[in-house]
Amino acid sequence: NINETLNILNMGEFPPSDKTYGELQSELNAAAVGLSSASSEIVQSVERPDSLARSSRQLGDAFNRLLGVSMEMAGQTEDRETQSLMVSSMKSVTVNSSKLLGTAKSVSQDLTRPNAKNQLAAAARAVTESINRLVDVCTEAAPGQKECAAAIRSIESTRPLLNSPTEPVNELGYFACLDCVVEQSKGLSEGMSGMASAVKRSEHEQFARSVGGVATAVQGLVECTAQAAYLVAVSDETSVAGRPGLVDQAQFARAAVAIDQACRALCDSSSNQQQVLSAATVIAKHTSALCNACRVASGKTASPQAKRHFVQAAKDVANSTAKLVKEIKALDTDYSESNRARCAAATAPLQDAVSSLCQFADSPEFASVPARISAHARRSQDAVLDCGRNIISGSCSMLESAKVLALQPQERSQWQALAAHSKTVSDSIKSLVTNIREKAPGQRECSAALDTLNKQLRELDQAAIQAVAQELVARKTHSLQGYCEQIENSSTEMLERLEPLRTAAKSEAENLGHSVIQLVSYAEPLVSGAVGAASNVTESRTQAALLEHTRTVMETLALLIQAAKNSGGNPRAMNVHGEVDGQTELARQNITELTACVRELTTQQGAVGPLLDAMCRSICRLTEHRMSLVGSYDESDSFVDYQTRMVGAAKEIARIATDMTAKSATDASRLVQLGSEMCQKYEQLAQDSVGASATTPNADVANRIRLAVVELGEGVSELIKGGGHCRLAA
């Protein structure tokens, strides 16, 4: 009988069934209890031959019932691997049941044999254990059971992301996180509805897809939650913002992982057309991003060796990608084994090139400086992180209820539990969205900055009233030249910080607060310098002009910060981005006018120190890769436009240099004024050189332009310094 049963199992043919898997599961549990009881009865009746015969027949009947139900369940299982496990478990029950009967027969013939009862008990235990394994395998094979268990594990695996995140999880900005949460919540809602609907209709495949959708959506929600919490903390004024490295090493690592996974999909002979095309899209996207990052890094680095390495690495990645894409196109036209083999072979050079690039980019010299997050900032994360944890707990509980309902759709208590857990998840998502919106970075800092600027405006108004009444007392903390240098230094620092603020206000909410604080930190030195300089000037018209220029700068900055606050770093707030751009440009113009006013004042005093400082700053801006250069040139102008203006400025500098040479012998008092004009022309030329370098496609030409302008600046500085000495000697 045992051989016959094993042969039936080996055939792999299973009887059809019109019962649901849940009904079969209930029958299996009852049959398992029956066979386990029958095996215990065998042990107890071994001393009575008549009872043993009856118990043996009961064991046979119980075994047949269990095997019949198990065969029907195996027939409803589509997963071949799970089906094989079920067959293996049935074979184990068959063999152990046969061994129990054989042991019982042997023991009943000689009850005095040593260790006989222990052998019989061990055989009965083996039957029970094999029954338990069969029930476990069949339960796991039940529709949705494996999928629910996998979904719960994958969701729980994201919980560590919410342990006070101090590093970015992905590349999303703050408002992109909010958009992602809303988008993922829609996917989660669809998955939850799909699960309930599939359970009611006993649609097992739809149930499995819905469970997978729920898991994916929750994982996405948790990642966005962790990223938003990180951005909340890093944007806090008590935290120290990180400094980006030459390359984003995390981006390189993520791209390498994505490319590696896509290459594995291409190497898999079972991949269908959709999977192949999807892998090709992923590879194209990430290799393009890596090549662009290499191009940017080669332009920024001052090391010739690193520059060459980045350029060569980008070429290697691009060339190997092109070859792989060619093989993918060939594969797409004919999915033959030879084409698959060539496509798989073409992935190796790409993986090697990407691995080599990532290894080079992972050098400490290219690393970013991570943000230092304060204890206060960590506490500000709690509300967002708690929502994320509630989403995880609620989703897992919801899936546990769905797991039971997949087997027992009529279980009313589980339907109630499913509804309760679904509501918990929905409420947690709503709370998460509310918290992210309320904790938008930079708003508090913008309000504080506006208060600071209004305070400085009141001080300027008070000084202006005193100046009109000729009651402005001269301040002696610095000389007039010292106050003028303070104004120029503060103005220059403000100019440097306009572009970071503009960028943060439009698309980087996490940097908005820090950018505002840095810009406004120079408002007080600027105003105190302006009032101090005005108090040391005797001419009322000059006093009024200086204070009015400073007031205009403060008012423009207030308008800029209000626009930045309204924009909030939200890339989708397009309606206020134009205002941010306009106020930034207006602030740049007004600060430049204030600087020109102060420079004219110092020139009248015969001082060349401020001119030399201005020259030094212009030269430094060309030798350092500062963010203030980004967007500081007109992108609508062509290389020829910049070239024309630069040639004109260079001719003017040459003319002024000739005039200075002539005046040194005839009218030395004019030398400082001419030096100021030359400084202005050089600043204009240096500014245009940034646009010329950016618009030329030839990197070598761009570098030569920069070096030539720097060299010219050093010569102009020496000439201005010489003019100052000559004037003093006269």
UniProtKB/TrEMBL annotation:
Which range is the signal sequence, renumbered to this chain?
A: none
Q: Kindly state which keywords UniProt assigns to this record, in alphabetical order.
A: Coiled coil, Cytoplasm
GO cellular component: a single term: plasma membrane
Molecular function (Gene Ontology), one example: integrin binding
GO BP, one annotated term: cell-cell adhesion
State the coiled-coil residue ranges. Answer: 443-470
Talin 1-like rod-segment domain sequence ranges:
442-606
**InterPro entries referenced in this protein's UniProt entry, alphabetically:** Alpha-catenin/vinculin-like_sf, I/LWEQ_dom_sf, Talin1/2-RS, Talin_IBS2B, TLN1-like_RS, Vinculin-bd_dom
Q: What is its main location?
A: cytoplasm
Annotated ranges, domain Vinculin-binding site-containing: 638-724
Compartment annotation? Cytoplasm
In this chain the Talin IBS2B domain maps to 25-137, 247-364
User: What's the protein here called?
Assistant: I/LWEQ domain-containing protein
Native organism is Pectinophora gossypiella
